[in-house]
Amino acid sequence: MMVEDQRNITCGGDPFNYLKSTLKGLSFQLEPGQDVKVLLLKEKFPFGREVYEGLARTSKFKLIDLQEDNGEIAVILRKTQ
Question: CA-to-CA distance for 26 and 51, rounded, in angstroms?
Fold first, then answer.
């Protein structure tokens, strides 16, 4: 499983669009069936599960799991096509 650590990014723009762009880039790197774990900080990306599911779908991923622990989020995705 590939791990994409975005916890220490400095994003002055819109976090939603930043994450959308990051997932789109990952979709070009992975083959169908491959998984990626994206590590984020809840403070920078304060979204609910529905937002992550929508972002995953638009980037050709399936949300496998969303884990929150101590202010950190692990979004586990699988490339679908």
Answer: 17
